[in-house]
Amino acid sequence: MTELEKYEAAKSKGYTYNPITGELKGVYGRVIKTTSPSGYIRFIMMFNDCPYCIRGHRLAWYLCYGELPKNFIDHIDGNRRNNKITNLRNVTHQQNQWNQTKAKGYCWSKQYERWTSQITVNNKKIFLGRYDTEEEASKAYKRAKRKYHVI
Questions:
Q1: Who contacts 48 (Cβ-Cβ below 8 Å, separation ≥6)?
Q2: Where are the beta strands (DSSP E) in 49-94?
Q3: 64 in helix, strand or coil?
Q4: Is it true that domain 3-96 has CATH number 3.30.420.40?
Q5: CA dihedral of 86, 7, 92, 21, whole degrees rounded to 10
Q6: pTM value?
């Protein structure tokens, strides 16, 4: 079953979405709160005696716009449970990586014994400089992030 067929089946079975609250409701009108191990809203839908996993944010996009997302659905605020339509955007894989909080953009260089900062744009690393303090390296990365990671 294709992704489009899954979403059409969910719609025909009576799954609904409220774009203002971000709530997905099942066929009996209960709010779906089940999450995957990675924190996204998801559920299993039975169709023709086969189980299908449905990702909430992608179904929300489909139910709101009537089309499959072309790329990735990004949660703007980083909260994977927040499926309000104002918090979802259709982005490329690279743009989806921009709001990661784990990557800090700088590290200690043993070779130079200084903090080094860099950013990746279009799969190319841009060197931002070497700094005496971690704070300076962090500031350089944050400035570059505002410049290059704009959607």
A1: none
A2: 50-55, 72-75, 88-91
A3: helix
A4: no
A5: 10
A6: 0.73
Residue 53, strand partner residues: 44
Q: Can you give the pLDDT of all 151 residues of the chain as single tens digits?
A: 899 999 999 999 999 999 999 999 999 999 999 999 989 999 999 988 999 999 999 999 999 999 998 899 999 988 999 999 999 999 988 888 777 666 678 899 999 999 999 998 888 899 999 999 999 999 999 899 889 887 6
Place of tokens 């409220």: 18
Domain ranges, ordered by start, for the chain: 3-96, 103-148
**Exposed, middle or buried: residue 74 (CB in 10 Å: 0-12, 13-18, 19+)?**
buried
